[in-house]
Design goal:
This protein has 16 helices and 2 strands. A two-stranded antiparallel sheet has the order 1-2. The longest helix is centred in the first third of the chain and has 33 residues. The N and C termini lie far apart (121 Å). It is found in: Cell membrane; Membrane.
């Protein structure tokens, strides 16, 4: 048993309860700060003030919203499956709090004279626990869409299921690279293995793929297709109001905090100080309560990236979004894992084994190049299909050579032909 696990195993019951209360309050507080920050930052990007009426700089606006929304009228559709309708928000929210149990917030500290680690539990499969919790949360979204009994929430729930499945695979594969390098699934061990170089630098492709996947996993813009107001009114929570809507709203922001905390732990050194500060005073800023400050700062930085993307990028089309997940992120992840495996085994191979590895890599690259679609247009008169290989009706591709005649225009033309025929007949009769 590691030293971290030994300290956590010796925690008294009051200290465990204190950590549980801290996790609950931390998640709610950071979610409120994120709501306020998002409204202020996007307002700044769009040249408007944002919330500025309640408290200085609108700081009390989240509290005002939290007091207002529970008192709003709750409307339940007649067609709703009421037990599932009421249970769905709870299923969406509960796994988000559960995932915080394995996140390391800091190193070893003393709380009221008791030596412990700023973590609730250090499981040997902590990474798998986080992935399982993020997968369970989608059940709440799917059940909310189905139990509402109306079409638009159902479509939003089905979209969310397809989206989470697609990007959960890419996210899981991006974590494989970290596991290969750290040789552990425990989040505490992964943080300790980044003392020399953060995995965001050493495993840059994995970090980029994880960053894209975490935006798609949380249904945030530009990947907010389950909530696309231009298509589905509000998506899976269209029929929810009052406190049930608030639960879905909080669950979305806590999901952002979870994926940001996991990304910080896996790729940004966890609770360790950034590189210039880590050299100060014999690494004194990586001891005591300082690591918790660095950890929270990194989480807020990633949440700012979420907000930045929402304020700058337009929403993806659904086929583009699914294509990027299945045809780009997953194959690139698999190829990158293969490269990491070869690099890890490179030192154990002899000259013949290295030559075989190089030949295998060349074959893989040639195979990938052969699978790439041919984008050339052989017929210069042919217009390429809209999007990337998705056919559209031919009427949208061809410009008519002459304007179409309406029914009124055709009737006028037929009258003109009748008049001209009658006049020509009169002329023939007069000449006779």
């Amino acid at each position: 048993m590691s030293h971290r696990a030994q300290l956590l195993a010796d925690d008294p019951i009051w200290l465990i309860l204190l950590k549980v209360v801290f996790i609950f309050l931390f998640a709610l507080l950071v979610a409120m700060i994120s709501v306020w920050g998002e409204r202020r930052i996007i307002g700044r990007m769009q040249n408007r003030p944002g919330p500025n009426r309640v408290g200085p700089f609108g700081l009390l606006q989240p509290i005002a919203d939290a007091l207002k929304l529970p008192f709003k009228e709750e409307i339940i559709p007649v067609t709703a499956d009421k037990p599932v309708y009421r249970l769905a928000p709870v299923i969406a929210l509960f796994p988000t709090f559960l995932a915080f149990a394995v996140i390391p917030f800091g190193g070893e500290v003393s709380i009221f004279g008791e030596r412990t680690v700023l973590q609730l539990v250090d499981l040997p499969v902590g990474v798998l626990v986080v992935l399982a919790c993020s997968s369970i949360g989608v059940y709440g979204v799917v059940l909310a869409g189905w139990a509402s009994g109306t079409p638009y929430p159902l479509l939003g729930g089905l979209r969310s299921a397809a989206q989470v499945i697609s990007y959960e695979i890419a996210m899981g594969l991006s974590i494989v690279g970290v596991v290969l390098q750290s040789h552990s699934l425990a989040l505490g061990d992964i943080v300790d293995s980044q003392h020399g170089l953060w995995y965001a630098v050493a495993l840059l492709p994995s970090f980029v793929i994880y960053a894209i996947s975490m935006v798609g996993e949380t249904n945030r813009a530009p990947f907010d297709l389950p909530e696309a107001e231009s298509e589905l009114v509000a998506g899976f929570h269209t029929e929810y109001s009052s406190m049930k809507f608030v639960i879905f709203y909080i669950a979305e922001y806590i999901n952002m905090i979870i994926v940001s905390a996991v990304g910080t732990t896996l790729f940004l050194g966890g609770y360790m100080a950034p590189w210039p500060l880590s050299l100060i005073g014999d690494n004194v800023l990586n001891r005591g309560w300082w690591p918790m400050l660095w950890f929270i700062g990194k989480i807020l930085l990633l949440i700012f990236v979420f907000i930045w993307l929402r304020g700058t990028l337009p929403r993806f089309r659904y086929d583009q979004f699914m294509k990027m997940g299945w045809k780009f992120l997953v194959p690139m992840n698999l190829l990158w894992i293969m490269v990491l495996a070869v690099i890890s085994a490179w030192g154990d191979l002899g000259t013949g084994g290295r030559l075989i590895s190089i030949g295998f890599g060349v074959v893989v690259l040639v195979g990938v190049a052969m699978m790439m679609p041919d984008r050339r247009i052989t017929d210069p008169g042919r217009v390429p299909m809209a999007g990337s290989g998705f056919p559209v009706p031919p009427i949208d591709l061809q410009i008519p050579s002459k304007p179409r005649r309406t029914r009124q225009g055709r009737s006028r033309a037929s009258r003109r032909q009748t008049v001209s025929a009658a006049s020509s007949k009169e002329v023939e009769d007069g000449s006779a």
